[in-house]
Amino acid sequence: MSTKTESIEELGINTVRVLSADAVQKANSGHPGLPMGAAPMGHVLWAKTMNYNPENPDWPNRDRFILSAGHGCMLQYSFLYLTGYELSLDEIKNFRQLDSETPGHPEYGLSKGVEITTGPLGQGFANGVGFAIGMYHLAARYNKPDFPLFDYKIYAICSDGDMMEGVTSEAASMAAHLQLGNLIYFYDDNHISIEGTTDLTFDEDVAQRFMAYGWHVQVVPDGNDLEALSEALKAAQAETKRPSLIKVRTHIGYGSPNKADTADAHGSPLGEDEVKLVKKNLGFDPDKSFDVPQEVLDYYRNVGKERAKKEQAWNELYKQYKKEYPELAEEFEWVSNGKLPKGWDEKLPVFKAEDGKIATRKASGEVLNAIADGLPHLIGGSADLSPSTNTDLKGYKSFSSENREGRNFHFGVREHAMGSVLNGLAVTKGIIPYGATFLIFSEYMRPPIRLAAIMKIRPIFIYTHDSIGLGEDGTTHQPIEQLISLRAIPNLVVIRPADANETAQAWRVAIQHPGGPVAIILTRQGLPVIDQDKYTKATELEKGAYILSEADGEPQLILMGTGSEVSLLLQAQEKLKSESIAARVVSMPSWELFDRQEDSYKESVFPKALRKRLAVEAGSVLGWHKYVTDEGDIIGMTTFGESAPAEDLFKKFGFTVENIVKKAKALLGK
After folding, report:
1. 252 with 370, same domain?
2. Cystine design at 593: which of 295, 452, 544, 644 (Cβ 3.0–4.6 Å)?
3. Using one digit for the tens of pLDDT, what is the confidence trace for 514-537?
4. Residue 2 C-beta-side C-alpha neighbours within 13 Å
């Protein structure tokens, strides 16, 4: 390996290598190998290729960078610091420490310049597909002749681990089908994973695999060849019909005499003695730590200033655009700032009791179509289930390689990728994305749901066929534990509406909700529309739980529930009333929204003195004890379901008016 620095570029690359090794060593935790091997890729991206502005990391037409191999985050932190982003050398020194801006994997909203939270492998790769779709959609809506407002590209560095994860396959297939030519990914082919060399488990020809998907594929044999890397990027930029993968043979831990090309360089510090050898090998003083030569800092800071001129030019273009297309400019500004048009919610439909039974999935479709015209940035679809999930926007075309302005998405049977793509869309300002599947298949989407909650971004997840009420498909399709498992995710708001009107209000809350994703849980089977003149109006859904029907006189107990079971509670209330038992009925569509209310409101719904309570929900009983108290009871599921018509299943598992009355009377000793 070279012992001399021959140019400012080589010195800069080696500075990143040494900086990464130092930071991981000081933290005594981390992954030094990837940034040491991939530093040349980082250099050609930040110094030669990408458009960005360190002083305004969010300018709309910047290129996006995703470190899908998030464990190598010191690579990204190093270039963010060097090019002038709001990330100090002290934060580099504070790598992986409490309250630092340099966590162990990149986190959206914490470090300026980090576009999305990565770490679970494959997620960043799939997020990029959402970024790419977002660019094409914005361009189709807002670009005009001579005004290319949006033409940015999405760059990523991916690892062997990314290539092994299944979500990558789903996303790669989708990207090729949609001809996302603005995707350019480096594949860091370093042949090493945690357990050893990748040939222990992985010997496929990745290049051939991606060619089979329909990607534009190039191979760079030497990851230190800056000219070859730059030429590959230029060729990828010139390819507009296919996403690009550049397979680059690198050496993990490059510069380390004893640990390069070994698993020892992957997930552990190199060790103080080895770090000194790295520095000596790369021409640095072995006794200095976090040593950034001034000429390197000056070089990259000047690059950052030059890149900032790209935004200056864009701002001038946008000024002219506003003069030529003032209405579109005004629209873009309010959608990208997260604002909603005045009166949009006035288009929410109101359903009547005489409308008969309406499945909440069907009501959701009617709501979507009622509000779509007033919310041009609301786009989405389903995982090959739109006839069942009712998520098509009737007056709009599908997004495709031919029609980038389409608002209906066909994700195919790719729930893993759908969730990740939604996250990429959700961090694209100017878009509110939604995606739908059956509730049971939320299991496929758990990583992106969790990441959306961590990032506090707002994709809207639509989950239908929400209980044993889906009937004959049986145990494999009937969700039991899914509701409580979703409720366990911090920052995720779960809403299970009781009827069509609560469904409309669930959409209102979801569209307006800040600070995290929303999951709306919907029925397959028809439900009675709760009379808005007789009972409390569904607008109270925003509080999470509300008194739907007060007892006739001082309540002796509380009946509470969600979704399809609430109408049963109302019938049980009437039956109990005929037997001189006063019951309060509480509709509780969202635990999370209720838990955020003032204590005084919580007490008004669930008085501490009123401890006789019965919860009814066709899902796991777990979690209901928080609201039921030790003097209450729960009618729920403690087993899996069966294959049978819904009405037979509800009867067998106790979701009947008769059983609710029986349990309520038992609580009162009657």
Report:
1. no
2. 544
3. 999 999 999 999 999 999 999 999
4. 11
Whether residue 5 is predicted with pLDDT greater than 70 in this model: the reply is no
Could you say which of 289, 308, 327 is where a domain stops?
Answer: 308
| H helix intervals, 282-350 | 294-324, 326-336
What local confidence, expressed as pLDDT, does residue 2 receive? 39
The residue range of the domain holding 585 is: 540-667
Q: Which residues pair with 435 in a beta bridge?
A: 381, 461
DSSP string, 426-479: HTSTT-EEEEEEEGGGGGGGHHHHHHHHHHT---EEEEES-SGGG-TT-TTTS-
Give tens-digit pLDDT for 365-410.
999 999 999 999 999 999 999 999 999 999 999 999 999 999 999 9
1 is a domain residue? no
495 and 562 together in one domain: no
CATH of the domain at 89: 3.40.50.970
SS3 at position 546: strand
CB 310 within 8 A of CB 51: yes
Instruction: Indicate whether 113 belongs to any domain.
Output: yes
Question: What span, in angstroms and rounded, lies between the C-alpha atoms of 137 and 590?
Answer: 33
Spatial distance between the Cα atoms of 602 and 300, rounded to a whole number of angstroms: 56
In which residue are the tokens 């990208």 written? 336
> Sheet containing 244-249: which strands, arranged edge to edge?
64-67, 154-158, 183-189, 244-249, 216-220
- Residue ending a domain, among 257, 281, 308, is 308
| CA dihedral over 4, 303, 138, 424, signed as positive or negative | positive
- Is 535 part of any domain? no
What is the predicted pLDDT for the residue at 408?
98
10 is catalytic: no
261 with 164, same domain? yes
pLDDT, residue 181, reads 98
| Backbone torsion region of residue 553, taken as left when φ is above 0, otherwise alpha when ψ lies between -120 and 50, otherwise beta | left
Structure tokens at 408: 């209906």
Query: What's the number of domains the chain is made of?
Result: 3
Q: What are the residue ranges of helices labelled H in 67-199?
A: 73-83, 89-93, 123-142, 160-164, 166-177
Q: What is the mean pLDDT of residues 167-189?
A: 98
pLDDT in tens, 609-629: 999 999 999 999 999 999 999
**What does pLDDT average to over the chain?**
97
On the question of pLDDT at 293 being above 70, the answer is yes
pLDDT number for residue 69: 98
Q: Do 520 and 556 share a domain, yes or no?
A: no
The whole-angstrom separation of Cα 468 and Cα 5 is: 67
Tell me the CA end-to-end span of the chain in Å, nearest whole number: 86
Give pLDDT, residue 654. 98
CATH code of residue 616? 3.40.50.920
* Residue found under tokens 């594929």: 217
**Domain shared by 356 and 418, yes or no:** yes
Residues 283, 393: one domain?
no
Mean pLDDT of 104-115: 97
Rg (CA), the chain: 28
Q: Is residue 414 part of a domain?
A: yes
Q: In percent, how much of the chain has pLDDT > 70? A: 99
Identify the active-site residue in 415, 565, 592, 617: 415
Domain identity same for 108 and 58 = yes
Q: Based on the domain organization, do 275 and 186 belong to the same domain?
A: yes
On the CB side of 237, CA atoms within 13 Å amount to: 16
